[in-house]
Amino acid sequence: MAAMASDRRHRLAIVQYGRMLHESGFVAATDGNLSVRLDESRLLVTPTCISKGRMRTSDLVLVDTDGKRLAGKRRVSSELGMHLLIYRIRPDVYGIVHAHPPTATGFAASGLDLNRPLVCEVVVGLGSIPLARYGTPGTPELTDALEPLVPHYDAILMANHGVVTFGPSLESAYMKMETVEHFAKIALVTHVLGNEQPLSEKEVQKLYEVRNRYNGGGPHAAPHKPRVSSDSIRLDETAVDRS
Ligand SMILES: [Zn+2]
């Protein structure tokens, strides 16, 4: 009974955060997908071909960790492979959100990451936000592009596609999605104003110490340090491998 009550709670959370994704304009039409890890063998995932703004709890699909459908009438998200990859690599992750928020996706479609240390709380909360190279949705190309980044980051821009965020709960994954889009807007305004003043390396180091304290010094405590330089937004050749 306790397991069923907990399943119900997670179903309601997915429906609620799906609605928030839609209302925030982070997805259009039937875009995006969300999932929760219920236990070591079962994931609850959103179905394909439905607006994430108007799902019912009965629309969700229960799958095992190999992606096999255990329950649910609908077809599971075509991006299931991305969710399976992240849960496999990151045992600390219990919730994943994928969306196409317009500003952050604009960066991802311009070959730009969000690694510049412009806002202190983003450095503490997310470290930096890298850009994964492009991969066709629903194929191993996409998961191969994400795989090297997943151990080190909780939010990743996906070139010419969108954003994926993850964390110890669906709520934390959703909040990270909001932070990414909000920060992308700030980075854009900063660029337009033409007087970008990123935090110094010394200040970034202090913020990383705070970040490591929050994260308890675990393996995920210190992702790559964002680059600190004085030039403006530009292509990041280290993050985007277009070969
Ligand atoms: Zn997508």
What tags apply to this protein structure?
binds zinc ion; 8 strands; eight-stranded mixed sheet; alpha+beta; L-fuculose-1-phosphate Aldolase
**How far do the termini sit from each other?**
52 Å
What shape does the CA trace take?
globular
Q: Spans with pLDDT under 50 lasting ≥5 residues? A: 221-243
The major pleated sheet works out as:
8 strands, mixed
Order of helices and strands: HEEEEHEHHEHEEHH
- What compounds sit in this structure? zinc ion
How many domains? The number is: 1
List the helices and strands and how they pair.
Layout: H1 2-23, E1 33-39, E2 42-45, E3 61-64, E4 69-71, H2 80-89, E5 95-99, H3 102-108, H4 120-126, E6 131-132, H5 140-146, E7 155-158, E8 162-167, H6 170-193, H7 201-214
Parallel strand pairs: 6-7
Antiparallel strand pairs: 1-2, 1-5, 2-3, 3-4, 5-8, 7-8
What report would you give on this structure?
This protein has 243 residues and is of the alpha+beta class. It has a single domain, classed as 3-Layer(aba) Sandwich (L-fuculose-1-phosphate Aldolase), CATH 3.40.225.10. The chain has helices at residues 2-23, 80-89, 102-108, 120-126, 140-146, 170-193, 201-214; strands spanning 33-39, 42-45, 61-64, 69-71, 95-99, 131-132, 155-158, 162-167. Strands 4-3-2-1-5-8-7-6 form an eight-stranded mixed sheet, with helices on both faces. Strand 1 and strand 2 form a beta hairpin. Helix 3 (102-108) crosses helix 6 (170-193). The chain is globular. The structure holds zinc ion (ZN).
